[in-house]
TrEMBL record:
Organism: Cardamine amara subsp. amara
InterPro entries the record matches: RVT-Znf
Protein name: Ribonuclease H protein
Taxonomic path: Eukaryota, Viridiplantae, Streptophyta, Embryophyta, Tracheophyta
Domain Reverse transcriptase zinc-binding: 190-274
Superkingdom to which the source organism belongs: Eukaryota
């Protein structure tokens, strides 16, 4: 136990949005990279800042952002900014106008993406266009420098057809316009939100998320329910598997193995509390067979009981059952199920009174009193 260094929930899961099963926290490593992408964007579009001017003159020199080679003696921040180029390449495109800023080989200005990736590293030699050339420098005698029509390279044949249908860039059209974002969301300005959404870990949206995070939830109740839903609360059955020399019996009944489902659903103490709560909600008395049954009941619409009232009461019940368990374990204090129900009743009234002016909560207090 002393050598075990683990968290209840993995950090990458915590950093998922609430709708995807996490807590919506931001991983600072990923967030820092998303912010640094803005510096790369400023170099790409040629911002008028002093920082861009200095790096263009002393580091990029006659090359572009994509082709520059990072020197071993470069600064730490410069190395990290340049390391983000593959990510930036996926999010940047160029709307061709005069062709003087767009890189012929590295920028995405055709449907083929960066031509250096599409044609290959032999492309500059086969076409006779330098690796550092801009699109404008690929124009010869007012026409594209086409690949030979007899080339056997399929990529070059496709490029030839693309260039034939692409208008030649002209100074009268203004400067090239770089755009930021995935194909579904293109914007001429840098967006940290887009960068973050592209880089952060993702997961499918679980059906149980709406049973935890809803407008008007009590944070401490929702957090406890979220941890319990993931089965990460330190119940005794889990503590024993970690090597702790303790009794595995339930703190409430002292008869059965203390697992999540037993503690909150099957324990005699919990069943008495649920019986009181269900009657107060106008629901028939029944026993939740497993945790998924409880979650399914919460997420299923019912004309008998408003969904928000069910969620508030259920989360408060789980929180108070866990609190009662801890009071018995650490403080040697206990109360009866009916006494705990009285505390829950007072808590629910306070929550509903505090939220009575919010949308969807105005009539919940009267519904809570309907079955007294």
């Amino acid at each position: 136990m002393e050598n075990k260094h683990s968290a209840k929930v993995a950090w990458q899961d915590i950093c998922l949005p609430k709708a995807e099963g996490g807590l919506g926290l931001r991983d600072f490593v990923t967030w820092n990279k998303a912010m640094n992408l803005r510096l790369l964007w400023l170099l790409l579009v040629g911002s008028n800042s002093l920082w861009v001017a200095w790096n263009t003159e002393h580091r990029l020199k006659r090359t572009n952002v994509w082709a520059t080679v990072v020197q071993s003696n470069s600064s730490w921040i410069w190395k990290n900014i340049m390391a983000l180029r593959p990510t930036a390449k996926d999010l940047t495109t160029c709307e061709l106008r005069d062709g003087k800023r767009a890189s012929f080989w590295y920028d995405t200005w055709t449907s083929h993406g960066p031509l250096i990736d599409y044609v290959g590293t032999e492309g500059p030699r086969k076409l006779g266009i330098p690796i550092t050339a801009t699109v404008a420098e690929a124009i010869r005698t007012d026409q594209w420098s086409f690949p030979s029509a007899r080339t056997r390279c399929q990529a070059l044949q496709n490029l030839r057809l693309t260039l034939i249908s692409t208008p030649i860039p002209l100074p009268s059209r203004g400067s090239d316009c770089f755009k930021w974002g995935p194909p579904s969301v293109r914007t001429p300005c840098f967006s940290t939100k887009i960068a973050w959404e592209h880089m952060r870990p993702t997961a499918t949206k679980p059906s149980w998320a709406k049973a935890i995070w809803f407008k008007g939830h009590v944070p401490k109740h929702a957090f406890t329910f979220w941890t319990a839903n993931l089965n990460r609360l330190p119940v005794r059955a889990r503590l024993v598997t970690w090597g702790m020399n303790i009794s595995p019996l339930c703190c409430l009944c002292n008869q059965q193995l203390e697992t999540r489902d037993h503690l909150f659903l099957h324990c005699e103490y919990s069943e008495q509390l649920w019986d009181l709560l269900l009657r107060r909600l106008g629901q028939p008395s029944f026993i939740f067979q497993e945790w998924n049954t409880l979650v399914s009941w919460l997420t299923t619409a019912s004309n008998a009981t408003p969904a928000k009232l069910k969620l508030l009461v259920c989360q408060a019940a789980i929180y108070n059952l866990w609190r009662e368990r801890n009071n018995r374990l650490f403080n040697q204090q206990s109360i009866s199920p009916s006494a705990l129900f009285s505390l829950l009743d007072r808590s629910v009234k306070d929550m509903l009174l505090a939220r009575r002016t919010r949308k969807g909560f105005s009539r919940l207090l009267s519904r809570w009193f309907a079955h007294t």
